[in-house]
Records
---
Amino acid sequence: MTPLVTDNLTDSEVAEKLKGILSHHAGERHELIPILQETQQHFHYLPAAAIREIARFLNLTESAVYGVSTFYAQFKLTPLGKKVIRVCRGTACHVRGAGKVLGEIEKTLGVKAGGTTDDMEYTLETVACIGACALAPTMTVDGETYGKMTPKRITEVLGDGGKTG
Amino acid sequence: MTAEKPASAGRTIYVCQGTGCVSGKSQQITEALSKAIARQGLAGVKVDFTGCHGFCEQGPVVVVEPEGIFYAHVTVEDVPEIVTSHLRDGKPVTRLFYKDPVTGEAIPNHKDIKFYSKQQRIILRNCGVINPEKLEDYTAAGGYASLKKILQGLTPEQVIAEIKRSGLRGRGGAGFSTGTKWELCRNVPGDQKYMICNADEGDPGAFMDRSIMEGDPYSVIEGLTIAAYAIGASEGYVYIRAEYPLAVKRVRLAIQQAEKEGYLGQNILGSNFSFAIHVKEGAGAFVCGEETALMASIEGKRGMPRTRPPYPAVSGLWGKPTTINNVKSLAYVPVIIARGADWYAGIGTDKSKGTCVFALTGKIANSGLIEVPMGIKLREIIYEIGGGIPGGKKFKAVQTGGPSGGCLPEAYLDQSVDYESLTAAGSMMGSGGMVVMDEETCMVDVARYFLSFTQAESCGKCVPCRIGTKQMLDILERICGGEGVKEDIALLQRLGEEIKAGSLCALGQTAPNPVLTTLRYFMDEYKAHIEEKRCPAGVCPKLIHYYILPDKCEGCGICARECPAGAVVGGKRMVHIIDQEKCVKCGNCLEICPEKFSAIVKVSGEKPDVPDKPIPVKAKTKAAETKLPDTAAEL
């Protein structure tokens, strides 16, 4: 049941950092998802040691916490790259060529959707819909939205962080 | 409000800061405007921002009031000219006016833009008008008058009766009477009840709820508070997708401001009614839009639906009576209370009252958020408000209801848009996504796309949904890949019916709809894929081929340089050829080939006469005599 992780933090370091997050929660079950969200925001993924600590704090089994962590797409059990690219696969983006945009990024970075580059610079993900359909096809880099994407604009966006014209 | 220069006096310049326009640097535009106005000393001009205007396609949008000048596609570089020419000298910048996609005419005032003039904006009335981070803007526009009105003189039963009489139906998709839903919960005894706003807008191709929360979060909070009063709840939740950070921020702010002003909290406005709202962020599971899954998620569990009954009205969040309403349903409530049930019931059709909000997207000239009266024709939405299909392409289908809905063909364009008519046609009203598709959209690919979505989002509880959608997806992928067999069609139909019958929640019950409606209306496309191994829309990569026409190629070599797969072979002044084994069907060559040559064609199911090896350009006379099939030229 231990998730596969490769990280540089020791378990005690993780537990130490987690204390700050847990200190403003009461230890009730309904706090699990907000705690996981805060933990992920801090570590950019959910380290195995964090899952253990959270389970202990909420008096849940590790498997219950793991079950929730794997149910929701937001939670990651492996470290993400420095920058997270999300390519929208919404309907409007799909019919306006999101597939080609994704293909171009996969080619440029040399990773498939869901993967992280070897140098840990980029993680490439797809997202069901970011709700910016009028600008389709869209993608986000670290939460910033780029609209009306074309395969040609990929180097521009990834190269210097240039934005929608 | 005195100005140094008369031309600028009393103007406010509003910059849209919805998600779409922000991605076009609208925050930087706001800053640049403030600086430029200060530099020029235009004391009478104010700079402010609003939420989404709905016309995201034209973003970043800047509006100058009171004259109503609408600027489209504004950039930071345009700011000096707007400030100097318009705000200082009183001469609007004509080059930034919106241009009608049909007539090409430049239209200065937003009131004259067809996209807006055909709409009837009730719950979008404040979107793009008020500053969504200023409560005083909302109250100045009549906000919180309804809450005051009910707390001063209406019983919960009277509120419920008013909402019932208005005919308001749930805007989350199912269309159940909102007043009746409240009444059921009101009538269940219980010391603790919960009122939840479902803002887990997950349908791909839909952003109505996001825009309302970003443009007018106050209406949603006021509606939620009135609903809580009606059912007798003291605690409430807004469950918002984490993918909508700006909506989360503005809803949280609206709640804090309401608490400060006494619209939320203990003894609201001096009454006996107390109500507190918590915000819960979703964590990326589409199924959590289903009410029982949503409640499980708030409780900190895996968001899996459960059997109903008991319905949430009887046993909901933590087993307590609970009502769950969509963002839009709640946003209607303050307006209905303010203007009366009769006014609201006077809009729309016999059974579907009021207006409906759609996110109009896809192959349409005017993409954006629209609000129209129920009963409007699809044709009016697509051709009058939407401005038709761009690039002179032909309409093929309109998709409503997201992954639960269906694709309607041209024959249904004069269909009335309301709950019953759309359901009868095999689609559904849904939450408000409306995606337009043109002749270059493959309907089999669209069905495959939706199935890939629902298959990935199935929570896995019901076997027919978990495994059935996977089987359907596999079949559709085979068909798109040119390996479909005749029996596939009957199998898809059977699986679709069985998944609908054997699934607990609406996700599984509706997942087959995109496949079943495309089978019903676009059978010829399925047959072309299966029997002729041809994709008529030229979309499915395994069924299309790119060729270089020898009579048109001048051997310039641009395509060879752009080809990512090294599939284009040629040489200086040689007619190039594409190695079909190496070609990855990216289409770069077709896009890059200079228009004066237009030497590259995309075909499906046929092959133009092309040489096997590169030939010198001058030697191509013979090949030029062979004519292309007409269909290939059209593609």
Note: The CA atoms of residues 46 and 285 of chain B lie 42 Å apart.
---
Amino acid sequence: MELIFDGVEEALRLIFSGDGYVYEVLFTSLYVSGVATLIALAIGFGLASLIALRLAPGKTLAVSAFNVGMALPPVTVGLIVSILLWRSGPLGELNLLYTRTAIIIAQAVIATPVVTALSIAAIQSVNPRLRLQIAALGASRWQSGVMLFREARVSLLAASMAGFGAAISEVGATMVVGGNIKGSTRTLTSATVLEVQKGNFDTGIAFSMILLVVIFFVVGGITFVQQRRPAS
Amino acid sequence: MSLLSLRDVSVAHGGREVLRVDALDVNGGEVLAVLGPNGAGKSTLVQVLALLQKPASGEVRFAGEPVRGNTLAYRRRVAVVFQEPLLLDASVKSNVGAGLAFRGVAGDERRRRVHEWLDRFGVAHLAKRSGRMLSGGEAQRVSLARAFVLEPEVLFLDEPFSALDAPTRHALIDDLSAMLSDTAIATVFVTHDRAEALRLGDRIAVLMGGRVRQVGTPAEVFGSPVDEEVAQFVGAETIVAGRVQSVDEGVAVVNVAGHAVEGGGEAMAVGDEVLVCLRPEDVVLGAVHEGVIPTSARNHLPARVTRIVPSGPFLRVEVDAGFPLVALITKQSREDLGIEPGADVIATFKASAVHLIRKRGG
């Protein structure tokens, strides 16, 4: 118990002492996971509308594939991305291994199936007759899509939160492709792992606490938007 | 030339043809009631007419031109109201404004029109309410306002009242009837309810088993059904148009083609345009030489037999009493009274057997 209190105290000290190291780690986490989530949303929403609305044969197969993708082990993803980015790998010339971009790629790969699978379910849960009514109101294809996303917004925002959660809480792939380099690719999760390995449990708890607070504010913010009454 | 027409349209679901229409026309300003039992293909017909569903073959013509390729421009000239109100998860005014927003009508113009139609359907006080928090009747009013606000050239109503309770349905039919008269929008009104079809339809198309079996005025369809099956479904009534001449203690005297017919008309007013409905089993035919037998029946009309058609154990006798009238008699009665085409008879029926339906706008 004392360890946890020490951790909380250390967290508060780290945050309020203006320690540059902590803010840098915090910024790295928010930056890579934020960008990875945006990429996952762009790809996931697009794929989900395509699969839910357009794909006729192969739909079940595609949905199953993304459902399986939700359970992709992060370490495996990290390993595959590493192999691709390795100097002698197919994308080696880009020199991306051990950079923030590498972490973004790995986290996006992890978050995309989560966003896609949950978004397909969200779009499919909208009454198909409502889609007919929207078309009957004279909506273009683009306008129909926007209306459909509005109708499914509560579930789509849940999908976004799940995607962000998968990205920011991930550590296996981040360490494999990022290398946990101080001042560059160290995130809140990889910093926590490092501190625990060094035996600095209070600092480890402090990083975890900061991570929880970050998740609380981001997810809380999205939940606030999600639960608002429909705009008039 | 008709405003909207179908030619050689065929629709199949899962290899089975569910709709086959060689020709169907909707004229400008008219209400075409499509009457048919459940599973007749009525909703499919509406969806094909509104081009929400592409027929396997055939074409939809609007103002004489086939509608091909991109249907968006056409969809923006028509409006559809479904059986379920299908409101968006947004406020009532956003729902009613949605179609206008799609058409790029913005700002004050949109607000003005939305408010006008919410007001006309008596739901202006619900404008800020969520569309998902309404009663069935309120939601269907909003759905109707959402269609009328678009000022469509053709309006499709797919059983819009069937999910509502009777009082709500009657109130809404009254309002819709007035709205259709005011706007004179060409309308396709789909229903399985004969009374609704009679109330709103200028013409009636009977749809059974995916085929249009008969199209005509209410009098034609109900008075002379094309075949036994249609006759069974529509109930084979005499239906003729008339105008209320006087109303005395709940009994209305209606002028039908120059003849006075008495019927129950509590809610009627002098001058109302009405449909006089009479079931064949309520009409008694008598030989002319017997004269008028004193009974409690109020209506006695001299008539001439025009056609005799077997109908199960009975005979359907169509007579001309200045207007077409149908009676159901036994074969024995026919022999006893010598009823043959061309014979003169007296048609007798009680005022209480006469059902009066006020026509829209009347």
Note: Residues 20-54 of chain A form the longest helix (35 residues).
